Amino acid sequence: MLDLFMQPDTWVIFATLFALEIVLGIDNVVFISVLCERLPHHQRRLARNLGISLAVATRILLVFSISWVMSLTQPVLEVMSTSFTGRDLIMIAGGAFLILKSLKELWSWLVHVETSQSTHVRTGLTVVLLQIVAVDAVFSMDSVITAIGLTSDVPIMVAAILASAVVMVLTAQKINELVSLYPGFKTLALLFLVLLGGLLMAEGFAIHVNKGYVYFAMAFGLILELCHIRLRKKLALNISADTSKVS
């Protein structure tokens, strides 16, 4: 195995897979952060760390189930002369779930629907972890299939997944704090997840959309929200200065 990682080509493949996993990790951390907001504060760190661990374990299991994953690229259903593979059906179902879940969270967030705190404590953590695993499995399907196309060496794929997991753990707390501290970031994150759900469904229906457009829109929205935060702070300072002068 050490000889494998001494080859220059291995590091090129590793860097490509690592970048792919980082992009996927951003989606996962955003989704995990939004879901953890539904839990009591003392459970959020535990749920976030368990969620990331389960997400990584899911991806590694998919890597070791290469033959099964590749079988999902074979047609299993035909509707009106259109064939659907197992992967397509997973993408459609997963995308629909992500859209419905994100819209539900967005609606609850905007209209301030409160649910019983005791219900969250009793069942929230288990439900959140199950949702994280289900959505991550959908997100991981494309990356695993792409990884198999790049290399057949399982150690390289596992190493890229574990390296990206370290980045996810290091950034998850900061992303969670931003989502909690600034309402605009949570709204932006939920809308981003709705877009991702739409992309997954489009992929399932063989409609290929460049994800770069979505990430560009997300980056633009992020910059816009940062400008709003800066302007609000500036306005608050001006009001404070005016109040001091009057007094």
From TrEMBL:
<keyword id="KW-1133">Transmembrane helix</keyword>
<feature type="transmembrane region" description="Helical">
    <location>
        <begin position="213"/>
        <end position="231"/>
    </location>
</feature>
<feature type="transmembrane region" description="Helical">
    <location>
        <begin position="47"/>
        <end position="69"/>
    </location>
</feature>
<comment type="similarity">
    <text>Belongs to the TerC family.</text>
</comment>
<feature type="transmembrane region" description="Helical">
    <location>
        <begin position="123"/>
        <end position="148"/>
    </location>
</feature>
<feature type="transmembrane region" description="Helical">
    <location>
        <begin position="89"/>
        <end position="111"/>
    </location>
</feature>
<dbReference type="Pfam" id="PF03741">
    <property type="entry name" value="TerC"/>
</dbReference>
<keyword id="KW-0472">Membrane</keyword>
<dbReference type="InterPro" id="IPR005496">
    <property type="entry name" value="Integral_membrane_TerC"/>
</dbReference>
<feature type="transmembrane region" description="Helical">
    <location>
        <begin position="154"/>
        <end position="172"/>
    </location>
</feature>
<feature type="transmembrane region" description="Helical">
    <location>
        <begin position="184"/>
        <end position="207"/>
    </location>
</feature>
<protein>
    <recommendedName>
        <fullName>TerC family protein</fullName>
    </recommendedName>
</protein>
<feature type="transmembrane region" description="Helical">
    <location>
        <begin position="12"/>
        <end position="35"/>
    </location>
</feature>
<keyword id="KW-0812">Transmembrane</keyword>
